[in-house]
Amino acid sequence: MGIPVFVFAGLLVHCVFLASIFDIYFTSPLVHGMTPQQTPLPPPGKRLVLFVADGLRADSLYELDSNGTSRAPFLRSILENTGSWGISHTRVPTESRPGHVALIAGFYEDVSAVAKGWKENPVEFDSIFNESKYTWSWGSPDILPMFAKGASGDHVYTFCYTAESEDFGAQDAAKLDTWVFDHVKSFFNSSRSNQTLYSALNEEKVVLFLHLLGIDTNGHAHRPNSREYKENIRKVDEGVKEIASMLENFYGNDGKTAFILTSDHGMTDWGSHGAGHPSETLTPLIAWGAGVNYPQRVASQFFEDNFLKEWKLENLKRLDVNQGTLPLEYLNNSAHFKAESMFTNAVQILEQFKVKMTQKKETTLSFLFTPFKPLSDSEQINLLKKTRLYIQQEKYDEAVSLCKTLINLALEGLSYYHTYDRLFLGLSIAMGFVGWTAYVILVIIKTHTNLTKAAQSHDKESTILLYGFAFVGLIIAFFLLIQTCPWTYYVYCLLPVPVWYAVVKELHVIQDLAAYLLSLPVGQSMGFLLICALGIEILVFSFFYRSTLTIGLLVFAGWPVITQLWVQAKTTALIWILLCMLLGIFPLMPVVGREPNIPLVIATGLLTLLISCSSLSSLCKSKNKYMNNEDLKVQFYQMLSIALSTYVVSSTHDSLQNKQGLPVFNQIISWTTLVSSSVLPLLSPTFLFQRLFSILLSLMSTYLLLSTGYEALFPLVLSGLMFVWINMEQEALQQYGLSLKPKLAVFNFSYATDIMQFRQLHLDDVRRSFFFVFFIVTAFFGTGNIASVNSFDPASVYCFLTVFSPFMMGGLLVLKVVIPFVLVSCAFEAVQVTTQLSSKSLFLIVLVISDIMALHFFFLVKDYGSWLDIGASISHYVLVMSLTIFMMLMNGLAQLLTTKKLELSRKTKHHST
Ligand SMILES: [Zn+2]
Ligand SMILES: [Zn+2]
Fold first, then answer.
1. Which one of the ligands is nearest to 53 CA?
2. 159 CA → ligand 1 middle, Å
3. Which single residue of 124, 444, 872, 901 has CA 20 to 30 Å from 343?
4. What is the mean pLDDT of residues 753-774?
């Protein structure tokens, strides 16, 4: 396979792997095509009023103020005298959209929306609004339209403030709620002079939905413990009271109105929501009016939390519900009515189950189809018959409990059929992945080692092989065809065929490899595999726990001790151990940007100056004959720029603290430093350490400007370790008797590429590549979780600009992230050339490492939990997938930075050959 073909195949395979997660994990669980079910008994109410106080925590509503009074006196009196109450448990993600979907449409919104964007309705669904005769709703433009859009016909009406005018709540978000209450009142007033509206309002099956965003907005702005948040609850309580009495008047106290007050999600103490903390998942639920139970006095009730005592509600029955299921205990009706309602509920869900099963059955060959055993056709009929019989015999409790069993089974079955293909698709993708990785390993062995004998060509055998695989492919395609699978399934299932064909074609390489492995002592080869597996696990874990990097670095610190290197070069090994431990501190520190520490940044600047002074003096002392004044001048400029950066950081933050803004002079210096830092290293000599040091100085001056705390030290320690690494690799090479040990001090990058004769790969090169990947990951997670953008503090770009400009800020932050990478990549470039490795073979090893990691993350992709968890699991996968491409780019940049030298044209330079 030629290089372009290889690269193309690699890209194709990775694109398919990447896209596959959306077909495997993020598909819609919704079912369409059921017939609506109705209870045979008449409903107790004609209309429902639904108040959703967005972002209202259960405890904020129920608890008493310090003086023992409730901040929601009307709602408190409702739950004490007329209605039922409890805690409604929401699911993660605790966001407004899925919260409202669960309340109004009765299902947990599916994560397939992840792949389709959030704004519009990503999937079609039915809702209580759509099933109503008329629905009128008031509130935020972010929530209301999504239920109106899904509704068929013209019977769901929305009244929203415009998104821009949401600003009127800027001073006091409670105005968003008074807007809603006022509009509801004037709407009902206007109906008195509008006959059509009046009669519409008096129809049966009417829903009024009041979405109250004020509490959520105040919670984000001022946190739930603030006066604003609590004051807003008081306002909502008053509003609810007024609306309730206005409606009772309007309908002449007909007792046909049911009221529900709840919230879509809670809020953490620090004013956020989305995840699964109890403060986010516990929301209040108060219901009263038509068909709703009166308060039930109880002597004692048991709950694991202490809320009842805190809220002084021990003697009023608390009825907890899960968002989305029918809570029978809230109903004030005959046991017969409850049993019938439950039966209808069960039949509805069973209907969904049946449709889902039929769909799956139709697209699966009958002999391959494994039905959901616990709910077979006969079992369904049996359960339904029994329930009917119980209802006829007036054994309502038994009927209800049977219905509950049926519902649970049907829900289980729904999820069974929803994830039916997941195993088979996942295996297919894993097959492809493993095949591809195996193929890359074979390519490495074949082209970069001397393990294999000359390839023998057996034309006949390879043709048979080709036909064999083509046949297998045809059979797979045929099976997919008769099951009418979507076209993407063909890609996932057929991809492993050519990949494995390529693997099996290299059978002789596998044989040679097996022979070689068997010739090694068993302990040695097993130990090698074990270390490889362990190393990759450490890398995978570091994506979740940064502290894993510290463990890895400690193991690295032990490397010279367990090998011969310690005896060979004591001082270098000692420095290596020290720096490994020092670098290991960084992943243990909190994520950057939490606590600005400008003195530390300034100290780092001074330390850098000190180091460069000592290096300069040692250079002068050694009287390097290759040095000339020009080169000294370049280093002097770089030191000057470090000094300036240090000054700018300190003066900018001083001036910002005194509210004097960013001085123009500082801004000019910052931008000049940024530009010059990319050019200055190219003017410095190309001797290994001088060039690397020059790159460090230049990047350091920019990095200082972008630092706000301890992270300023990170590139310095990292580069220290990189310098030692280059030396250590030389020593390690000597240990294997591979090298003539070129003198590192006079090693020149610019001659490296043409003289170099690449050697064959050795087992130790696997370790080298692993070190590289590990250092890259350390550069990534060393000072924060770069995978989540909000771990960034805008304060870090204040030396460059203070006006908000997402594009510029983003660019600068990316630069800050990239600088440690460049340092690692340049060091690795040095390791490559001094150990005579070809970068191609090395990248193949890196490809293998990152593919094995990607396979890990493939199985760790989450389709449940908060958006943050889901997003992180996807971004890990994408990150690892793009790791190789990213490292190739970095390698190119490193080659450019290390080998290119700009000559100032006005001087005639004498080449020091
Ligand atoms: Zn919300
Ligand atoms: Zn919110």
1. 1
2. 18
3. 124
4. 75
